[in-house]
Amino acid sequence: MKFILRRLGFYLLALFVAVTLDFVLPRLLPGDPAAAILAPMGSRMTDVQIQALRQALGLNEAPLIQQYFTFLTHIFQGDLGISYSQFPAPVVQVIGTGLKWTVLLGGSSLIISVVLGHLIGILGAWRRRSLFDIVMPPLFNFIGAFPAFFLSLGVLFIFGLRLHWFPISHAASDTIPPAFSPEYIGSVLKHLVMPLTVSVLVNLQIWIQQMRNVMISVLAEDYITMAEAKGLSQMRIMLGYAARNAILPSVTGFGIFLGSILSGQVLIEQVFSYPGLGFLMVSAVGARDYPLMGGLFLGITVGVLLVNFLVDIIYTWIDPRVRSS
């Protein structure tokens, strides 16, 4: 219990620091977002209307410390402000439109990467120095060494622009109305293939390398030798004894991996114009949309911290050594 409380205190401190950075960093960017927003309509607005709009957007000239406490109050109320670039839409609403696509892309990538990575890592360690072990792990390590941006451009050029196998942008066809229909689902899946492929290729080698290395270490343990001496089947030893214990370190890396997926998808979503949180983040930075930038940063940070805290709780449950320490 003390371990959980210590971890909770650490994550609350990390959340406080993240919220403070969320407030400070956007305000260090050069330029005045109010000028960019009001420029197209400034000549048609009176001074009173301009000041009222600045007040509604939270762009008044109040001291920073006052703005900070107002910022904290609004966060606790679930109010992340109004998006400058998509005025007058609330930030929560804008984030909600991109969240579903990021969850679809990131969740699919996570599941496929974890399953394939563990299978390849297990088989590579079990058949060490075989043709499979010599070819597969190094191949995916080589592919994963390329930046996500470079792989995205390559996949887009070959399978989208040259072969025309898949759509090159967006998350679904504009001609199909959003509905739970075979046509719309098929369009979503077809648009998902290329960004999902890149995301899996970028992250797969992490799970392969980790699982293979831990599996090799586990196979050298005495209880594996004892299981072989008992005459247990090779499949049972591989899955029930070796792989079962080798998976434990993967639990701790899950939270870190989630953060890497979210950060890596920024580039992938930008290349494929996939309307997820990463695409929104780049658009918000370009438009100096402070509330949207802050909401995205805060949402991603809270998600990663929450997942890591849950991982800590799960790990204390599955590994008695953590509880005893």
Notes on the structure:
With 325 residues, the protein is mainly alpha-helical. It has one domain: Orthogonal Bundle (MetI-like fold). The chain is 76% helix and 0% strand. The protein is globular. The termini are close together. The mean pLDDT is 82.
Q: Do you know the CATH architecture?
A: Orthogonal Bundle
Query: What do we call the CATH homologous superfamily?
Result: MetI-like
H-E order: HHHHHHHHHHHHHH
- Secondary structure: number of strands: 0
Question: Top keywords for this entry?
Answer:
single chain, 325 residues, mainly alpha, MetI-like fold, 14 helices
Q: Which secondary structure elements does this structure contain, and how are they paired or packed?
A:
Layout: H1 2-27, H2 33-38, H3 47-56, H4 64-76, H5 91-126, H6 131-144, H7 148-162, H8 182-219, H9 222-229, H10 234-246, H11 248-271, H12 277-286, H13 290-318, H14 320-324
Helix pairs in contact: 1-13, 5-6, 5-8, 5-11, 5-12, 5-13, 6-8, 7-8, 7-11, 8-10, 8-11, 9-10, 11-12, 11-13, 12-13
